[in-house]
């Protein structure tokens, strides 16, 4: 027994020793090489890549909005990153910022992101951190962040230093939250002002866009926040319509649409790029190998990662019809050079995983994509220290210095378009100022905006200057004219399973003749549909179906109302057993309303039949019950306000944004009537335009004294505007886009090539209303003494162009000095004028300053017939001016 006991004790000791040895072996085991920060990034990337499963590689290529509420079990393989939400809003964009529940303050968001990083570092197999991302077009699009003027307004400052300051402030608010990638800025060239997303851009010119992009992006990348310029490469097509197919040749792309993207990759170090939804030369940009591999990665040497726009990867299947299904679309995109699939929902992943699971995607393409993503994560230091001090987030988001910067940017962005009789600035001693219009008390921030902090309306800004007692306010008219509206579900009923239910019974057929048994039967709460991309139901073809709705309509009051249909042709409507509308012919999109006498509370039988044989269907059952035609009274109230004031300021605006392209550029609704009525009072009339693109004004421009383009001025825009209105700041914003006289001139831009003959219409000229680079001041400037550092240079030399600018007025002000060139004789046709330099200077009254602008060989270069970039010998016309049309000095530079 004693012997056995000794054996047991020895065995126990050996076992304990083994455990200790094993334990020691684990605790002293070295971390894998990829966790060693002293190793070169590429070695770390390769080591980690070698350890990853196919699933883990897939998830590094998948980005979504969300957080741990998705479920840790679903995230065990890791993920590229999350878009974290905190009540962001997106005024003017159809693609709303994805909101997965508020995380409250900036500090709350920082804590949430820290929690996410901790999970992925400590609880997943490989411990790969995420890249939290968000939108930051003109301020981080989340609660608590400062909102600056919209991007087009920042471009209108023509001040790269200011834009850099704004970007630096946004970077601070972004990085302190733990966000390490922004899906901004927009570098698309806005050559057609009908496009609803012009507001998001830096305008129509590649040089101006490039300089703004470099200033904005550099600040983020220098601080370790990845930028994602978008949408690569063009996002607007024929008619100014978003995401329309593009068939531009390589010359046009290289001359106009590529330069800004290429510059920010090569000069500012942008580490990501987002593809556009549309197709380029027949291939979706998201799966375009020529664009993503040949051009971007191989020719330009881009070593960052390419992400899709939200949901764009599957677009090859459901929109462009170049892929049979999502798996094939995924295969095409990844092998063409897409690195990250941006989806709006975690549950979408099986659609894309299928291509990986079945071995459809070349593993070399997968590894290349993952390598690019991992490289970025290592470069950002996320493996070593992904955490932030959450208190710093609250400190810097909405910081008072940022708010002051927002005010400064607002005043510097505003463009004075007209100022007869020196109506502006308004004297603060004026007894009364009438403020009229929707945008007086409403602060619209523009697309891709956060909610902002303590929004300062135009009313409040003016009141801060002269006091509320000196303001007469009238709300004016609505921005859009509402003549009818969809009939609400409360006014519709039908029978289901013997019971009365809300809505109409819809019978859907997989043919266009309402024949046979319905394929789908359902209750539609109301008839208001936009089946523009898909069909009413997965069992129906999107372009070959018909519907019969039946039930009853009940009015809430007695009266004769107009009732009918707004939608695609191919419909008829029966009301109270009678055929009310017969529009069975397919032709267009129509609105047909007919009068019908309703009694309050009485129910009337309704039957609507509709067929669609071409797709892209929209269909609404509408009436004008409850619509008040009170705009005439609103205009009368505005006139009274003007009559009781010394000067009238009318605010007028537009609706635009993503999925809101504009066929017509005039002010919508009854705003033009409002302006004309106020002007007819004889009181000095100022019109302030709120929007992000061009507005036509032929019907009223001659009636008013002054016009100010205020853009979307940001959270402190009211104070910035008041500074301009009363002369505490002198306006010096300049247009980054061309304003046409009429939308029939579109697309209209300053740097067109020679037409070959004329450029006028029979009943309109080819000249703009306001040209690119245009803007007035409260003072005036004189240009003189144009000189070149050398009049004759070789093709590899840089020349300094100098001139003298003098403020001839009585007050200080800024001037934007613009340098344009024209190649007098070239082997290929060149633009009639090209912006190649600018600077914004401040001059006191009577002060003169010598301005120097640099012309490099790159600025003088062109693409020859074989698309080789060269500088050709010959004469170049060098023009200095106050706009593309207002040239003050010019000379000839000779290149040997």
UniProtKB/TrEMBL annotation:
Record has Nucleotide-binding as a keyword: no
Keywords (A to Z) from UniProt: Hydrolase
Record GO terms (molecular function): beta-glucosidase activity
UniProt cross-references to InterPro entries, sorted A to Z: Cellulose_deg_GH3, Fn3-like, GH, Glyco_hydro_3_C, Glyco_hydro_3_C_sf, Glyco_hydro_3_N, Glyco_hydro_3_N_sf, Ig-like_fold
Keyword Hydrolase (UniProt): yes
Superkingdom, taxonomy of origin: Bacteria
Start and end residues of each PA14 domain: 499-639
GO biological process assignments: carbohydrate metabolic process
PANTHER family from the UniProt entry: BETA-GLUCOSIDASE (PTHR42715)
UniProt record similarity statement: Belongs to the glycosyl hydrolase 3 family.
Name this polypeptide is given: Beta-glucosidase
Species whose genome carries this gene: Maribacter dokdonensis
């Amino acid at each position: 027994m004693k012997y056995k006991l000794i054996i047991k004790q020895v065995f126990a000791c050996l076992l304990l020793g083994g455990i200790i040895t094993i334990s020691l072996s684990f605790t002293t085991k070295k971390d894998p090489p990829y966790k060693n920060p002293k190793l070169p990034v590429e070695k770390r990337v390769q080591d980690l890549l070698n350890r990853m499963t196919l699933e883990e590689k897939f998830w590094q290529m998948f980005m979504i909005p969300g957080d741990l509420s998705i479920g840790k079990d679903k995230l065990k393989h890791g993920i590229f990153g999350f878009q974290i939400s905190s009540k962001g809003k997106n005024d003017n964009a159809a693609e709303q910022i994805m909101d997965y529940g508020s995380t409250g303050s900036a500090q709350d968001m920082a804590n949430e992101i820290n929690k996410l990083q901790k999970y992925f570092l400590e609880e997943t197999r490989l411990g790969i951190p995420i890249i939290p991302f968000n939108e930051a077009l003109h301020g981080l699009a989340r609660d608590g962040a400062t909102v600056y003027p919209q991007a087009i307004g920042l471009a209108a400052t023509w001040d790269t230093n200011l834009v850099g300051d704004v970007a630096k402030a946004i970077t601070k608010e972004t990085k302190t939250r733990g966000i390490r990638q922004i899906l901004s800025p927009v570098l698309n060239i806005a050559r057609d002002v009908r496009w609803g997303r012009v507001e998001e851009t830096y305008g129509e010119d590649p040089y101006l866009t490039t300089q703004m992009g470099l200033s904005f992006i550099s600040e983020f990348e220098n601080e370790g926040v990845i930028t994602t310029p978008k949408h690569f490469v063009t996002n607007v097509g024929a008619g100014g319509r978003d995401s329309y197919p593009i068939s531009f040749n390589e010359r046009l792309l290289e001359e106009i649409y590529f330069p800004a993207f290429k510059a920010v990759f090569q000069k500012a170090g942008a580490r990501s790029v987002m593809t556009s939804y549309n197709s380029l030369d027949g291939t979706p940009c998201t799966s375009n190998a020529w664009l993503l591999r040949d051009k971007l990665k191989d020719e330009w040497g881009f070593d960052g990662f390419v992400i899709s726009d939200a949901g764009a990867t599957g677009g090859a299947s459901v929109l462009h019809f170049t892929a049979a299904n999502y798996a094939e679309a995924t295969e095409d995109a990844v092998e063409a050079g897409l690195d990250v699939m941006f989806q709006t929902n975690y549950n979408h992943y099986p659609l894309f995983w299928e291509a990986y699971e079945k071995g459809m995607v070349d593993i070399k393409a997968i590894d290349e994509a993952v390598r690019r993503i991992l490289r970025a994560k290592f470069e950002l230091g996320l493996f070593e220290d992904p955490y932030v001090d959450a208190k710093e987030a609250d400190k810097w988001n909405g910081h008072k210095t940022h708010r002051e910067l927002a005010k400064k940017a607002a005043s510097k962005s505003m463009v004075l378009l007209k100022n007869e009789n020196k109506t502006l600035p308004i004297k603060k001693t004026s007894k009364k100022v009438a403020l009229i219009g929707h945008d007086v008390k409403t602060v619209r921030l523009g697309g891709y905006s956060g909610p902002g902090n303590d929004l300062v309306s135009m009313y409040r800004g003016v009141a801060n200057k002269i006091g509320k007692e000196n303001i007469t306010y009238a709300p004016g008219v609505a921005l859009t004219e509402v003549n009818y509206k969809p009939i609400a579900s409360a006014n519709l009923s039908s029978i289901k399973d013997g019971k009365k239910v809300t809505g109409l019974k819809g019978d859907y057929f997989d043919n266009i003749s309402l024949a046979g048994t319905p394929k789908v039967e359902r209750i539609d709460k109301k008839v208001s549909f936009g089946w523009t991309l898909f069909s009413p139901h997965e069992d129906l073809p999107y372009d070959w179906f018909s519907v019969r709705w039946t039930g009853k309509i009940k009015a809430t009051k007695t009266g004769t109302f107009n009732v009918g249909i707004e939608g695609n042709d191919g419909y008829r409507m029966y009301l109270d057993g009678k055929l009310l509308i017969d529009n069975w012919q397919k032709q267009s999109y129509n609105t047909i309303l007919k009068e019908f006498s309703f009694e309050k509370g009485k129910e009337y039988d309704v039957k609507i039949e509709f067929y669609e044989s071409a797709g892209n269907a929209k269909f609404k059952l509408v009436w004008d019950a409850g619509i008040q035609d009170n705009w005439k009274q609103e205009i009368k109230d505005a006139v009274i306000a003007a009559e009781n004031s010394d000067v009238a300021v009318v605010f007028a605006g537009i609706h635009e944004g993503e999925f809101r392209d504009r066929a017509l550029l005039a002010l919508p609704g009854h705003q033009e009537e409002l302006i004309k009525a106020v002007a007819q009072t004889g009181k000095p009339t100022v019109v302030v335009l709120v929007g992000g693109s061009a507005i036509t004004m032929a019907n009223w421009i001659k009636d008013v004294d002054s016009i100010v383009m205020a853009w979307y001025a940001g959270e402190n825009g009211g104070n910035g505007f008041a500074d301009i209105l009363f002369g505490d700041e002198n306006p010096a914003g300049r247009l980054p886009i061309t304003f046409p006289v009429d939308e029939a001139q579109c697309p209209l831009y300053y740097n067109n090539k020679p037409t070959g003959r004329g450029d006028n219409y029979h009943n309109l000229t080819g000249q703009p209303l306001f040209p690119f680079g245009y803007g007035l001041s409260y003072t005036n400037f004189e240009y003189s003494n144009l000189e070149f550092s050398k009049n004759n240079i070789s093709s590899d030399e840089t020349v300094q162009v100098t001139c003298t600018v003098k403020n001839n007025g009585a007050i200080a002000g800024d001037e934007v000095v613009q340098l344009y060139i024209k190649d007098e004789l070239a082997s290929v046709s060149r633009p009639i004028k090209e912006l190649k330099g600018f600077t914004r200077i401040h001059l006191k009254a009577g002060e003169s300053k010598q301005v120097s602008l640099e012309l490099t060989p790159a600025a003088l270069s062109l693409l020859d017939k074989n698309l080789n970039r060269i500088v050709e010998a010959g004469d170049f016309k060098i023009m200095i001016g106050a706009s593309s049309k207002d040239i003050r000095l010019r000379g000839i530079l000779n290149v040997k």
